[in-house]
Every structure is written in structure tokens, then in C-alpha cells.
């Protein structure tokens, strides 16, 4: 990528949108369904309003004295759109993602993280895609950056029979594909699943989900469309509703919300200037992987508040239960700390030891994947340890309303008092937080995301095997085995 | 225990209550609160009715041709109350608990399991307790058995500072205790947590939670009271409500429900004939452990449908996702099968190799605890493997209502079709079941129960260390080390 | 199998050979090589004499008052040759294997275990093989039983390219095969690896190592030959020599020894009466698996002394180091106990719940494989825990000779004294035993055997997947998912 | 520490000793015993000569064109003695330790690593120790540096009853102590265990092993003495002898050797100028920990060739066995790579994010301990995976001599040929290397070192708990729980 994209001019902070401007931008003709019912205005819907408010934290942070230094990039735009050119850029991007997720109570905001990951992948491939795609990508990138837009990404196809390629499927719509090429654009049909933040984004980038070969050419398609594009239908998942949740009982999930949709493309027209790949099957895999690699670095950044929360949960639970000196509790706390800090160290080390490709700083791919893998494989154990320290009240706690009951509330609170003068009410708040974090739909959401989001555990292992430079180890082992007579070991 | 308790006479099956008789028995003056509001009738309350219906399966099974052979014991009473005298008795009890939990969709019924566990522990200790306690225990046992009653157990105290004994606590009510001794009975004050099925039981047995010493004598108390006893208040946990759940989306937890209460004893009077231990601090630990050991055998029996469901979930998910031949999926399935069948084999082996104590068959304590420990330590990994096979749709699935939508429902279902002709609707049902089983409050409930119910993981390790006969191994190691000169090894 | 094979007549115990008769039987024309040198007499060779003495324990036990009840079967022959017909038979066989391995200091004797496993597999397949094979197998079985012979088994081929079948290999000798069929017998060529106890056996049974198809017919061969058969060369592995080891320093491996050979068949002639399979490619897999399944039950029986030794090592090490009350040590001991006792329970449960096939009792295959898998996957962790408790002296201990040194020996011993009056000399013996058991070639031998002997970990997983009855779990999961409308769950 | 210690003057490379000068320096009056026999000259002793040659690699590297840039520090002295002042210094030190251990075939040289770790710890504490200790330490440091000396460290006491302090022991010599204070020095008595490289060092630094209190003042002693000091006796461990090993069979341990001694101090006189701590019980813990922390960074540096060798062993074994495409093999390789590269990344990140204390660069203590812990807890699993890929020949291989046998050698080699044209001889070399690396005494040595060297696993957990800054996690969890009302999260 050439460096024109970053010619920071005299751009002004004033161009960053306010939370209200963001909300207003979501009131358009988008077709969103929730439990079979059409949603008129996502910003006022009982569940989606929480998702919009959650995402709006991004705009709020940019205007907040606490975070603006982090949230605004060197060119005065949102830092998310700043193409990283150094390890410092990557560390700053990581720090912003961490800070916003931390403010989001362990739930990532994602409305710019994922979109910029896709934009960086497109920019990185634009030279290979050539004209006119190169120019289209740059224009669209500037459109998002200058408009301070919320951008989602639809990538995962439904896939049908996973042993077959797109063109081999019995169901021709198992993968999204081009069904018509017109003079002014293309028409696509199909569905994507797991599309995060689509209901409250401004733009949707669509990418292929896997490597392809020649017969799959019609499936090798990438483009971007506004959310209110005709033919685009967003069917929201009902999973993890905020509905009817008290914040005292569900301190995280009563208000924090991200929405995933099954996204239907019912012969959607995409004008040429928004088409970034059309038939270039041989580049489909590179684009799919390119996005995922940027996105995994985003992932290991946004997981940091979650692992910190788990360590903190363990520490607080040990305290309110009077278990800080118990041997097995200390053992579990040491495990949790090692788990969290290994992730942090690997994420930062990957950023600091990035590779420059055409001026773009790419975090160390091997380490990013190792970090993601270790996070993914350890989260269930982390939940187990925290639940073990916290105790059975996680699933048998009295309700917040009970504490206020005129007859038995005071007695209940007194009974729940613990060792070191921890108030019963405070103990319950800690347990409710841990219950929300690890046992309910929110905990399950994080668990499923750990395994499946940003590529599966198996995909990460594959990348690790592919990225590892085998020479150092294999040549050394050969020398040790006496298959190489050199006086000193190779490498 | 002498064998009078089982003088099976010509008792009739007709004495077993019907579900409706059971429901009617719950309409009394019990004081139950849900989210700060008094509950008039637990059988009609929006959430509790599910718990009552769930428990009523017990009575339904006894009258069902499919299960009555298992549900009715050799004396014509409910088999739960049959004091096991042989390995076969234990296997039959285990089979009944497994069958009823299987019918309960992996959720144990518990209204007789836990009560009979406590009754067996009391009967086993009755000779040591001596008269008049011995007779009181037998009479109460017959009362429960002959009345086919639902019986809960309140054991776990709130505990305050866990490093201190009951009498050392700064909060005098951290453990339940006798505050007054009258000519006709005792008065107790305090609270118990985690009291399962109390809101829909007929009787509550109260047991000490730990070993005690002389200054704790007033805390060394065991007794039984009807649920509508004055001064007894049941504060139900709001965790895992059935409220507003569609069965299509939550096939388990929309209707299956067990309720735990924080149980308050506000100067409750217990007449002498219901007092089973009063001040015998030196036996408090034996009673606490005796109950837990019977109860852990119940536990490893009622966990079997859960582990079967996880294996089945893995198998179905592999099928509907077209992943049956993937190496990593097969690896996880082998793990799940080994996990489940090890538990089953250990449970059955413990029953078959029981120890007879005063005519009561006690399952092998060491094996029961090993089984419980391995179950408890593996469940989170089992969830992880099942979620890994099932995929991200666990947390991003469209709603059941969406499939029926006139505009996009058919398309949605077609997209979700998978490899081997599995219908989109059926695939979704499988995913919803797995989501309910492993990711939401129901999965969290099972996870927390695994770690904390029937004694913690640490308590199980303690029992394993205490129960293990060290001679065989230690003497053998000494002989191997040459510290014993015998020609042949010891043992 | 018909039951003629067991027509126990008035056979006399006197037919069981003595250790010296066994030793004498090994002095024949066998061609054995050790480190490139021919071995004239295995019974007097500096290393092999230990292997012979070790194996001779079998004959010694049969004549010992302590063990003869176990070692002699109901028909007066060695119990190893008794075809199991009941669970009790299997338990007795398992107990004998456990007792002899316990006497063998955790090293299995194997000279009848493995041979009888192969004989049982041949007998079980003899009806399918038909005449004349059926009669040949029975005669050979009676020959081994009546002669109280030591019998080894050569199964594992070298395999070349594992992705190819025998007939597809570029190297035609990668699998043992028939190179000539004569009127009086066959001629075979090839090599087998990992042939245990061949140098000190009387007979060798040769079996195919895998399933085959028609082009592999010449490789589908099974037969038996005496060890001194012309053309048979045994190249012994030098691994784990007893050479120069003090028993005080290596209490196990200074004298306990089993030898494996790479076994070369240089156009070996096998007379017809010793050929049990010739070209029946469609039965090759059944025979290979049949042997392995019997052999895995042998394996989980002979692993019991090893896991007991590890528990005992942990207990002794905790004692001599004064660490019995340390939390992490107790945690590791609980793990070791659970590991050992789960294996024992599964082995016994598999025997007690055997399946009768043509009158032969087959231990539960699923459980045997689960037991073997869990043993194999846990052994390295068991070593780790024992080493952790034992301490660094495992690899830095002073020599036994140092304790006796006139100048510093006494001081050294005094320094090594530990907390509870454990003598320095005894502490060192415990550490030497643990070092031998877990850190040196003996520990490595057990580790490699755990993973690879009696089939690999992957083979065990395959068998678990194949043997598991999927119905109970899969149908239940379908019912839970609402795909089956029955009132009660299936199964 | 002031920076005088590094006043690099015009020091010349010529001052670095040659291997022969090093060997000559070991021929003095040192009292070394091996298996109860006095050793006259360690440089010619059949086993110790290998240890001397191994250590001499250090001097060889300094004079080798390949390594001198790394081996010689900025002041012209050996880089080991260069007090690190920046992250770059730490990285260079780490790289040198890695390179020399790599040249040492995964066995650390240690003759300067451990000594400089102790010197740095003494220098770091010298201001607190004050005069005259401060000057003595600096002089001794310069003596070692300028003389290019080999320096060992004796720290671990025998400890007796681990629950008691030194002065509480029934055995007064369970810890080394001062038994007399003279005008010209002190006299010490006691023993130290696990003293590495003492038999081939020039100087020995003695440090306390734990924190102490006032009654332990006579045990709070640190000093340095030449190895030939009267009263000092080195009793070498016979573990892992090179005796009689063929290099073809034991490519690592036939020649690579490090010796540990039990080190006896029989009223050893130490002159004042060599006494660095005398009675300062309150600083004993700081000195013990200070050394261990420097030494753990050394450890995670010298473990890198070992983990590389394990990855390489896995890669080569997969290749020679034709298993590179097997799913379970790829899974294990991904595990091994992640294990190795996490260790490398943590080591480097800890160096780059060091803390400056009085001008000395201290690697991040939390990360160093996490790295060491993860290495220690994973090594047995790494061995298991490599053994799994390598196969049973690890313990049943034919001898190198067999391949050369005129009769069957050629056949043997042909049989052992594998899939991809790998020669039988080369395949065997790979298997012998892996056998040496993971199954014999060398593998056991590495396993025991992993757990116990540089502090135990439990000590590392303790340090992790102590070093972790709890604020970020605990305050965040409090905020999540609603115990802190701030708009934005803390930290």
C-alpha cells in the first residue's frame, strides 16, 4: 500500500461525530427483524437501544477528556481508521480497543474495530487487485474515515456441506454469490451468518470466507453497501436479550449489548464503485485470511478487559468469602494471573515485533495466533476457577429486591455479611457480577466467541503451523541427531 | 441400623400419591418470597408452577407403566425410601435417579433423593445418638415413607469467616443455633443457603454443616419441620427463571425448574419429637459427612443424563454440521464418551462394591468421591468441546419466530440446511438445545452445581485422601525401595 | 469356540515347569544378537540373564505357597492358559497378572500373558477360519498349555509409508509376507519390530498388524514357530541395560529386565501344521484387533502395580521430605490416588461386565479402551507430580558408595536425615527408587510403553468411537431437542 | 549500584582465557569424590572430563569467530560479567546463554551464568549491606570478571524439617552456619545440595537459601571461596554418567555433562575479605530472592534450545515416520510450537520491559516467573507429545552396532527405511536423539530441573501472586460490580 492514504492534512477533530449524530444516522430504511417482527427504529427498540448505546460509547469517548487522546489518531480522525505504520501505532490501536472494551464492561464495541480490520486487509491487497479496484478501495476507505462511520463486516457463509467447495454444494445458495453482472454493477444472492453490529452500523463490508478455485469464481466477491440497501434483510439473534434485566442483578448484560444477525441478500444490487473483488478466486483466500489476521489482533486486544475482569473477580470473590489465604484459592489466582498476563505480553510483543508490508505494520502473525489460541483454550478453565472461588451463591443468590424487603431484608443482609466486614449487599453485588460474567448467557456468549469468533481454534492451529519458521528447530534437531557434522549448530 | 425399618408388610401401591395430591399438599401457609413479593400458591405461580410440575414427574412416574417397576420399592413404597441393603438395591436406586433425571431433561427432581439421603444418614447414626433420638428418627422416617412425602434438606450455613468455628464468629447468626430450650422443644435461629426444592417440599430436614467442638454445642442441632412452620421464611433465588422462555428456543429451561432458597429461621419452635440432635457436637461432623456421602452417590447418579446429553449433543452437532469425519471432532467425541462412561462405570462399580454397615449398603466412598471429582473437574471442558463442535450459531441463532416469517422464513430455513439433508429447522433445534444446555443460565447452573453441590471439589479431595487405604501403595513402594527385605512384595 | 479346549481332566500340578526347566529350555540354537555380537546362551549373558531371571518368576510363583493358588488354573495348568468363561475367570487372570507384575517390581513378566492373548484371539477366530486351521490352532494351544511354555508374539510390522497398504509399499518387505508356498508349508520374509520376550520364549506367534484387502493376500499370514527355527534372527535392543547398575541405586532396573527385538525372517519355512492364516485378507483385521483387545485387558491389569508404585512413591516422598501437610502435595496425592483407583475400578468393572462370545468371556471393550487411554494420557503427569513431591535430589543424589565412605560418609548421612527421624540412608533409598521409576531409562520405558504398547493412543480413541453405542446418547439428545415428541425419553 | 563497576577501560580481548588455561586452572588441591573414590584430576577423569569439556565450550566460543561478538561484552570482558543496564543488555545476555546452550546440545554451560547471577544479586544488595561488605563484593566481582573465572553457587541447604526455621531444627547442621568468628574471618559448617558445576569451577559463592529471623542470625551468611579451600568436600552425584555411552546411541548425553555435588563444609575458614553477609538475618531473604530472580531469567534463556529441540524432534519424527499429514500429529506440533514460542516471547518481552534499579536492568519479574512456570508445567506434556509422534522404537531400537553387522546389518537398515526415502540409518539417529532427549536419564534430568531448579513451581506461584499489581484487575471488577459509581472504569 502506498502511503497516500495517510496524508494527514489539516483535518479537524470537529469532524468526529457525536453520539447523537451516530444515533441519527441509524434511522433510515434498514430492514431489521427481531423475533419475526420488523423493527422501525433500532435506536428506540427495547433491546437494540442498548446495543446502540453501547456502540455510542465509541463516539462519546472521542469527545471525552479522558479518552480523546487515545481515540483520535494523528491525523485528527478516529484512530481506528489510522493505518498502522509502526509498532507504536499498533500498541496505540490495541490500547484504544482495550480501553473502549473496558469502558464497555468487557463487551467490545466493534463498530470501527472490525470495519477497519477489513479496510486494512483490502488496502493491503489493493495493489494485487489492481485498478479499478485499488482506487475504489481507497475511496471507500476515505469515505468511512472522513465520515467517522460505523462499519460492520459480513464474512461467514452458511457453508452447507463443509467438505465441499462453494460450487460443489447441492444448495447453490450455501455461499453468497454473484447471480448477475450488469453494466452498472453486480447482483448478489445468499446469506451470511454471525454478522456483528450490522443493525447499528452505517456500512457493511462483505468478504469471502475461504480460499477458492476457478469454478468458484462467482463466489469470489467482495463489496460494501450501506445498511439500508434494497434487498438486504437483517434477522437479529434473540440470544442474550437485555429484556427485563435489573442492573443490580446483571451488572454487565442488563445494558451492554451487541447484536448479531443472519444477513440475507435477496438479489442485492451493488454498484461498480462499491465492488472490490469480482471473480478473482485466486485472491479470495488471501483476502479472507488478511482480514482474519488483522481481526485476531483486534481480538487479543479486546479480550484483555475480560481476562482482567476474571482475575479481578477471583480476587474479589476470595476477599468477600474470606478465602484469600486458602491454598487452593491462591493456586487458582496464580493460574488466572498467568493466563491474563501471558495474553497481554503476547499481544504487546506481537505489536512491538510487527512486520512492515508496503508500509503497513502487521503484528507478528505467529504470536497473535498463539495468543488467540491460548486465550480460547483457557477461557472455560478460567470460568471454572472463578466459579470455584465464588461459591454456590452464584446460582442461588437472593434477588436484589429481597434485600430491600421491609420484613426480612435487613436479616438477609446481615446473614450475608462476611468475614472482613464486607457488607452483605456488597458481597451480593460481587457475586451477581461474577454470575453475569461466567454463568449466564453473557458468560456463554464470551465462551462461544472465544472458540469461534475471528476464526476457530482449528484455524488458529493451522495458521500456527503455517507461520512457524521450521528451520531453526528442525535444523537444530538434525544437528543434534548427528545428521549434520558442523562443529557449531546451525542458526 | 437394625432391619426393623424395612419390615415390608403388605403395603399397597395405592399409598403412593398422585401428582395432584402432591400439588394439593403444597397449598398451605408456607411463607415463600420471590423477588421481594409473597407467593400465595406455589403451584400456580408463573415460575414456581414449573418447579412443581417438574417435581411432580416423580409421582407421575410411580403411576406410569413405563417406570413404576423402578419407582416402587420392594415394600410397595416409593423406592427412594427403601433403605439399600445390597448392591442391587443401590443399583436400582441409582437407576431410578438416573431415569427420573433423564425424564426431567437432565434436571434432577430431588424431592425424595435428597430427603432420603438425609434420612439414611440419620438412621445410620441413630444408634450412636441413642434414645430418645433413635425412636424419633425412625418415626419420622416412617412418616415420610408412608406419606410418600417430598422432603428437602437445609444444611449449608452462611458461615461468615470460614477460618473460624461457629462459636468464634463475630456474627452470632453466621450458623444456625439453638437460642432457647423449652420443656416441649427447642427454638432455633439463623439461616441456611442453597436449600433446594424447599418451596415445593412437604418437610424440611435441617442438618449441621461441619464438624464442631464443645463451645459449638448450641450449633450441633438436627431436626425436621413441616414447611409451613411459623417463623420459617423461604427467599427464593431468581436465578434461572422460566419466565418468557419459548420451549423451541429453550427446550430444557423453558419448563424444567428447580428452586433454591435462602432459608430464614426466625426463632422457629421445633417440638421435641422432631429434634434429632441437640448439643452432641462430637457427632455433628459424622452426621454432616454421612449425609454428604449418601448424597454424592445420588449426585453421580443424577449426573449421568447430563453427561449422556453432552455426548449426544456432540454427536448430533457433528452430524448436523457435516463434521463427523473431521479429526478434531472425533477426538473431542472420544473425550466426551470417555468422560461419560468413566462416570457411569465408577458409579455402578461403587454400588456393586458397597460396604454393609449395620445392614445398610454404603457405596464405596472412595470411588464415589473420585467419580464426583472427575465429573466436577471435567464439566467445563465438556461444555467447551460441545460448543466447539456446535459452532457460533449457539450464540447468534435466529429466533424460532423467524423461521415462520412469511417473507424471509422459508429462505432462512433453506440457508440453514446442512450437508446430509438435515432440515434447517431441525438443525436450529439441535443448536438451541445445545445453547440451552451449555451457554445460558441453565448451563451455568449445571456448572456451578458441578463444582459446589454435594460438597466442593476440595471437600472431595479431602475425602479421597482420608478414605484411601495407604498400605497397599506405601508398603509396596517401601519394598521397591529396598526398605523391606521380603522375597515377595507385601499385600 | 467350543468348550473342548477346557476339558480339564486329571491334570497334575507337577506338569508345571520349574524355573530351572524353563532356563534349560532356552538353551537351543536360537540366533540372538546384542550390540552386533552373537549371544551363545541367553541364560548366562550379562544382560539377558536378568531378563531370564525376571521371566522365571512366573515359574517360581507357580511353585510358591504364596501364589500357587492364583498361578494354577482350575484344570491344573498355568492359569494364563485358562480360557476365561466368566467374569470371575477374568478377575482371576487380572489378579495373577497384577500379582506377578507386582512381584516383578512394576515390570510385567509377559511370557505367558501375551502368548495367551494371541491364543485366545486365534481360538475366537478359529470357527471363521475353518478347517484345517481350527484344528491346528487347538493343537498348538494344547501344546503351549500342556508344555507350560513361554510364548511371545510378533505383530508390529515396520510399515514403511503408513499411508499405503502392504502391497502398495515401494519396499516389498515393509510388511512380513509369504514368498513361497510349498507342499509342506510356506516360506515367509520380512521383519517385525517391538517383539517382547522373544529371546527368552519357547514359541513365537506371528500375527498380521492391520486390516487388509485383496491385493494384500500374501501379507495375510499368521503362524507359530519355535524360537530356534532356521532363518529367524533376533536383534535385541540395547535400551535399558542392567549393565553395571547397583541395586541400591537402581532398585528396579538393576535386575528387572524385559528384552525387545527387531525380528528378522530371512525366508523362514513354516510347516503347514503351524500355519493359522494364509491369504485370508478379509480376516486379517479381525485377528489383529482380536489380539489387541485381549492384550489391552492384560495391559490395564499389569499397569496396576505401576500406578500403585507411583501413589506409594508420592506418599513416601511426602513423608521423608516432611511435606505431608503441604497443600499442593496433598493436591497431587489426591490426583495420583484418583488416577490409580480409576484405572483399577475400570479394569475390574470391565471384567465383571464381560460379554460371552462362543463361551469365551470378553472384558467390556469400551471400558478396557477407556481405561487404557486414561492411563496412557496420564502417566507423564503422574511422573511430574511424583517428581515434584520428591525434589531435586532425584537427579543430584550422592552415590550409595558415598554413604559408606570412612571420611565423609557418616556426615553425609546425618545431613540427609529428615524431619520425622527418617534416616538419611532410607531417604536416599526412597529417592533412588523414585529416580529409577520416573527419571531414567526405566521411567522412559514405561512412558513409551504407555503411549505405544498394545496399540497407540489414537488406536484406542478409534476403538472407543467404534464401540460406543451411540443410541442412548444421540436419541436422548434428539428427544431433548424436541425432534422426538414422545412423552418420556427413549432408552 | 553505582556505575564504577563498568568503567570499561582499554581492556583487551586477550585477557579472556583459553579452554586450556581454563582446564589448567582446575588442577589444584580440590577434594572431589565420585562414587566414594577421590578424583585426582577432574580434567582427565572418565566422566568429569566430559563435564570440563562441556564447560570449556564457553572459553572456546569467546575465541571463535562465530560467537565472539556475542561472548565478549562491551568492556572486552566476558559478556556474562557485564552488569545489564538496558533491555538490550538483557537481550544480549539472553542470546549468549541461548547460543551457548544450543552449542551445548540443550545442556547449559552454567559456569558463568550462575555465578554472575549471584554477583548481580550481591551488587544489587551491596548498598544495603554497607561497608565493608560493599567494597568486598565489588573487589570480588572484579576478581571474577578480570580473571575470566568459572564461578559456581551453593545455595540450597538440606533443610531437615521444612516446617521449621534453621535455628529450630533438631539437627543443628540442617542449614549451613557460622560456628566461630575469628579476628581474621569466620568458620562455617554444614552442607549444601544441588551445587552445579562446582567440580569444574574456580570459585564458589555461598548464599542463604531463605528468609530468616533473629534467632537464625548465625545462618545468615554469604561468602565466596576458591574450590580448593581446606575443609571443602565435593561429593559428586553419579546420576547421568557418560560412562560407556556411544555417541551414535546417545548423541546428547554421551559427551554433554554437568555435575552436581553435595557440598560439605567441614569447619571451613573464610577470611574477612570474602565474607559478604554475616548475621544480617533481615537481608537473608532479599539476597536469596535476588539471586533466584536473576537466575530465573537465565533459566528461561537456557531453556530455549531445549524447547526448540523438542519442536524440531517432533518435526523430524513426523517426517521420518511419514506422519506429517496425520491430524493428531499436526495438533501436537501446533502445541509444541505454541509452547516454545510463548516461552521465547515472554523471555524477550521480560527483557525489553525491564525495570532499572540503581542502574541495573531487572527483567520484568512477573513475566519471568510466568514464563518459568509455564515451561515447568508443560515439559512433561511436551515429552509425551514428542514420544507419541516418534513411536515405540524409542525404547526398542536396535543398536548402532547392529547396522554394521556383516550378516544382517544391511537387511536391518533396509527394513527401517521409511516413506520419503529416509535412510534407515538416519531414521535411527533421529529416534536415538529423541530417546536421549526424552526417555533416559538425560530426559529425566531436564524434567527434574524443570520442576526444581531455580526455585520450585510453588515458589514461582508465590512470586507471581506477590508481584502482580492487583489494582488494575480488582478495581475494575469492583467497578463492574457497581461498587464504584464512576462513569468510566478506573485505571
Give an overview of the whole structure:
4 copies of one chain form a homotetramer. A 6-stranded mixed beta sheet of chain A has the order 2-1-8-9-5-4, with no helix packed on it. Chain A has helices spanning 19-25, 48-62, 68-71, 87-103, 113-129, 133-147, 281-302, 304-320, 327-352, 365-390, 400-403, 409-416, 424-438, 441-452, 457-467, 470-480; strands spanning 31-34, 37-39, 151-154, 177-181, 185-196, 203-206, 221-226, 232-236, 260-271, 275-278, 355-357, 360-362. Residues 1-14 of chain A have low confidence and may be disordered. The first copy, chain A, is globular and about 75 Å long. By secondary structure, chain A is an alpha+beta fold. In chain A, 46% of the residues lie in helices and 13% in strands. Chain A is built from 16 helices and 12 strands. In chain A, strand 4 (177-181) and strand 5 (185-196) form a beta hairpin. The interface between A and C is small, with 3 and 3 residues.
Brief overview, please?
Four copies of one chain form a homotetramer. Chain A has 491 residues and is α+β, with helices and mostly antiparallel strands.
Amino acid at each position: 500500500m502506498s502511503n497516500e492514504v495517510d496524508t494527514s492534512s489539516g483535518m479537524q477533530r470537529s469532524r468526529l461525530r457525536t453520539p447523537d449524530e451516530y444515533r441519527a444516522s441509524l434511522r433510515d430504511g434498514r430492514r431489521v427483524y427481531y423475533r419475526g417482527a420488523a423493527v422501525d427504529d433500532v435506536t428506540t427498540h427495547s433491546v437494540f437501544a442498548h446495543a446502540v448505546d453501547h456502540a455510542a460509547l465509541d463516539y462519546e469517548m472521542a469527545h471525552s477528556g479522558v479518552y480523546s487522546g487515545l481515540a483520535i489518531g494523528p491525523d485528527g480522525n478516529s484512530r481506528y481508521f489510522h493505518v498502522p505504520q509502526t509498532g507504536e501505532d499498533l500498541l496505540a490501536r490495541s490500547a484504544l480497543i482495550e480501553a473502549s472494551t473496558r469502558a464497555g464492561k468487557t463487551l467490545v464495541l466493534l463498530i470501527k474495530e472490525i470495519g477497519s480490520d477489513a479496510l486494512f486487509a483490502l488496502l493491503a491487497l489493493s495493489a494485487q487487485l489492481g485498478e479499478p479496484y485499488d482506487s475504489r478501495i481507497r475511496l471507500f476507505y476515505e469515505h468511512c474515515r472522513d465520515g467517522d462511520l460505523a462499519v460492520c463486516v459480513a464474512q461467514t457463509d452458511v457453508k452447507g456441506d463443509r467438505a465441499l467447495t462453494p460450487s460443489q454444494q447441492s444448495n447453490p445458495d450455501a455461499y453468497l454469490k454473484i447471480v448477475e453482472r450488469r453494466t452498472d454493477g453486480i447482483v448478489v444472492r445468499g446469506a451470511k451468518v454471525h454478522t456483528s453490529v450490522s443493525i447499528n452500523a452505517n456500512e457493511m463490508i462483505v468478504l469471502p470466507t475461504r480460499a477458492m478455485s476457478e469454478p468458484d469464481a462467482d463466489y469470489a466477491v467482495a463489496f460494501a453497501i450501506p445498511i439500508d440497501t434494497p434487498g438486504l434483510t437483517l434477522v437479529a439473534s434473540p440470544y442474550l436479550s437485555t429484556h427485563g434485566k435489573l442492573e443490580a442483578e446483571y451488572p454487565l448484560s442488563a445494558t451492554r449489548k451487541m447484536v448479531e444477525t443472519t444477513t440475507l441478500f435477496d438479489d442485492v444490487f451493488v454498484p461498480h464503485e462499491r465492488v472490490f473483488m469480482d471473480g478473482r478466486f485466486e485472491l479470495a483466500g488471501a483476502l479472507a485470511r488478511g482480514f482474519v489476521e488483522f481481526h485476531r489482533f483486534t481480538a487479543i486486544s479486546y479480550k484483555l478487559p475480560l481476562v482482567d475482569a476474571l482475575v479481578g473477580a477471583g480476587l474479589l470473590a476470595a476477599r468477600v468469602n474470606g478465602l484469600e489465604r486458602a491454598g487452593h484459592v491462591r493456586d487458582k489466582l496464580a493460574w488466572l494471573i498467568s493466563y491474563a498476563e501471558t495474553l497481554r505480553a503476547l499481544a504487546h510483543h506481537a505489536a512491538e515485533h510487527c512486520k512492515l508490508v508496503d508500509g503497513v505494520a502487521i503484528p507478528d502473525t505467529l504470536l497473535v495466533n498463539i495468543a488467540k489460541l491460548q486465550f480460547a483454550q483457557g477461557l472455560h478453565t478460567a470460568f471454572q476457577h472463578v466459579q470455584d472461588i465464588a461459591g454456590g451463591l452464584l446460582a442461588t443468590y437472593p434477588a436484589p429486591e429481597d434485600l430491600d424487603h421491609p420484613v426480612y431484608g435487613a436479616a438477609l443482609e446481615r446473614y450475608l455479611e462476611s468475614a472482613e466486614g464486607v457488607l452483605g449487599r456488597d458481597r451480593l453485588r460481587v457475586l451477581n457480577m461474577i454470575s453475569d460474567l461466567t454463568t449466564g448467557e453473557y458468560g456463554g456468549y464470551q465462551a462461544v466467541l472465544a472458540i469461534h469468533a475471528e476464526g476457530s481454534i482449528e484455524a488458529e492451529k493451522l495458521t500456527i503451523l503455517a507461520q512457524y519458521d521450521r528451520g531453526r528447530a528442525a535444523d537444530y534437531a538434525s544437528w543434534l541427531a548427528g545428521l549434520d557434522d558442523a562443529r557449531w549448530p546451525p542458526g
